[in-house]
Amino acid sequence: MRYILLTLISSLFIYGCNSSNARSDSAKTIKKNNFPTVDTATSNKYAWLPNYDINNSIINRIPVPEGFKRETLTAGSFGDWLRHLPLKPGNPDVHLYNGKLKNYQEGHFAVLDIDVGSTDLQQCADAVMRMRAEYLYSIKDYDNLHFNFTSGHTIGFKKWTEGYRTKIHGNTVSYTKTVANDDSYKTFKNYFKMIFNYAGTSSLSKELKSVSDLKEIEIGDVFIVGGFPGHAVLVVDVCKNEKTGETLFLIQQSYMPAQEIHILTNFNAAEFSPWYSINFSDDLKTPEWTFSKNQLMRFEK
After folding, report:
1. Closest CA relative to residue 269, chosen from 261, 281, 254, 252
2. Phi/psi of residue 291, each to 5°?
C-alpha cells in the first residue's frame, strides 16, 4: 500500500526532470583524454567503489583550458572530494536504471563510475543529494547527513544508525526503533533510497541558500529549479584565469528516467567544453535544461 505522501511525491518523478529542449541534432563531440596526471594520491573515500583509480578521476581526466588554474582546496573537503570523483574509463554511453541506453547521448562529456540502482529513483535532485550524502558518510559526519521530505519533515541518517526507521501515515512521519545499531554502507544505501522516494527538487531547493553573486561560485553549489517540473545540476569543479579573472565550472547531472550521473558538455562554448563560464548573459543553457542566474544555491556549511 502506498501512502498519501508517497503518492504526492511520486508526481515529482513523473514530471520533475522533464524538458523539451534536448539537442537531438548535435553530434557527440567527446574525445579521449590523454593528459599527464595532475594528482597521484588522495585520502578521499568512495564507498561504492572497491577499486578506486585516481587516474580516472575528474581532476586527472578533465584538464583546465589554457590560462586557467584549478582553485586550491583543503584536502578532504567536499569540493576536494567532488574533484576526485571517479569516471568510467573511455567515453561510454549513458545507461538508464534498467540497463537500456538513454535516448539522448549527445549531451555528456564523461560518465561517473557510480551505480544508478535498479529502480527509477536516482534522478536529478537525487543525484545531487547522493553526492552530498556519500561525502558526509565517507567522513562519518552523521550529524549533518539529513534531508527533508517534500512534506517538510527532516530525516537524518544518524537515527538510522541507531536502529530507528520512519513510519509514514498520510502526511505524518514518526520513528520506531526496529533494528540494532548499524552504520554499514548497506544501511546507508537503504537510507538514501528512502530519501529518493520522498524528496526531490522542491524539497531540496528549500534546504539550500541562494548564492547572490556568480563570482562566488564554489564546488558543491547547485543550479536548481525546485518544483513540478524541476531540475538540478551539481558544480563538481572550478577553475580561474588569473590574468582575466574569468571563472569556469564543471557540472554533472542525472535526469529522467533515472540514469547514470554524467558530466555535461558545453555546446555554447566549444573552446571551453565541458567547462562553463560564469560570464553567461541571462541564462545558463545546458544540453537538457536552462537555468537563470538566480538559481545558483548552496548547502549550509
Report:
1. 281
2. -110, 155
